[in-house]
Amino acid sequence: MSASTSQVTQRKSKQLLLDELKNQTVIIDGFNILIILESFFSGAYVFKGLDDCYRDVSSVHGTYKRVQQTEEVLVAVGDFLQKAQVKEVIWIFDKPVSNSGRMKTFLYTLSRKRTYPWQILLEYNPDKILAQSNHIITTSDAWILDRAKQWFNLSGAIIEAHQAEKPNTILFPE
Description:
Layout (H helix, E strand, L loop, with lengths): L4 H9 L11 E5 H12 L4 E3 L5 E3 L13 H14 L4 E7 L5 H15 L3 E6 L2 H7 L3 E3 L3 H4 L8 H9 L8 E2 L2
Parallel strand pairs: 1-4, 1-6, 2-7, 4-5
Antiparallel strand pairs: 2-3
Helix pairs in contact: 2-3, 2-7, 3-4
């Protein structure tokens, strides 16, 4: 949640705007984006950091379970990125986390049904892949943001677009 002034400045200097996503490949930090948005859509607390990224207080410790809001979140992400005319979306999930294989299958099924241009990868070290990518990445993980070449605040954009629909969700602005 907290960051130094230089970290915030550096992160914001690499942050892209929505119109810069057109015809680009976007790589999503799977569990990071999914869990933040599941928290928001379920009415749990999400917090806006100094770097404008939203974060939750949930954590994944080796296991993940789908919740009632999971499909709604995935559709919100898919529809948002389709409207942004993204060329391709690559979801990366932590392979060691239980149920990541089931999540991969669920995303593939949803992507075929809704014609989302998605690839889903399971990796042992997704943070390193995201941090070193030449594509646009989406995460709120500070370690990745500090190393990324370029990024888009996907969870922030979706949260702010849906804010009016979730009046009971409390956001703590900077």
